[in-house]
Design a protein that fits this description.
The protein is mainly beta. The chain has 2 helices and 14 strands; from the N terminus they run E-E-E-E-E-E-E-E-E-E-E-E-E-E-H-H. The strands form 4 sheets. It has a 4-stranded antiparallel β-sheet with strand order 3-4-5-6, with no helix packed on it. Strands 7-8-9-10 form a 4-stranded antiparallel β-sheet, with no helix packed on it. A 4-stranded antiparallel β-sheet has the order 11-12-13-14.
Length: about 190
Amino acid sequence: MDRFIKPGITRFDPKTKLLTKIQDTSLGFGNYSYKSLYIDKHDKIWIATDGIGFFSYDPEINKFQHFGITGNRKGTNLEFILDIIPEDDRYLLLAVDQGGINRFDKLSSTFDYIKYDDTNDDGLNSNGIWCFYKDSKGVLWVGTSGGGINYYNPERKGLNYLLITAIIQNPCLIILQPIFMKIIKVLYG
């Protein structure tokens, strides 16, 4: 075994203290940048990449599934997937830079695309989605490139946004900071 971990995804077994590279050479999976991992309650690993789409890995059967960049509901609509967050047990939300939010249905293996629409005041204000944060009340915070911070409160209808991009270089750094979340809570309820 190499002394250093090579690019890719490596599993650590705490019982044996061994590192095992998880790979499927048929997918060309080795040298891409992995932006986000999410492990669901069934221990399935969901993998966001910077360039080759979206993957799942089922450790029970040691198998990958690739969802390419298709835009036809069978894959993501663009290649730069920066974050993953569960909406609930069935759906995952993917932050796709310039592709909006790609909503993945784990049961049907299909995607819906939630994008900026200048005729919809209750929608996203940017397609440059970088990151997500869900707070303790279920409010989904969405960090964008150029559109500030969008948020969705399931108790209210539609998305809202805070257009504070002039003071934020990277809104993801802000929405992940608990102190900032407290300030927003005081300002916006």
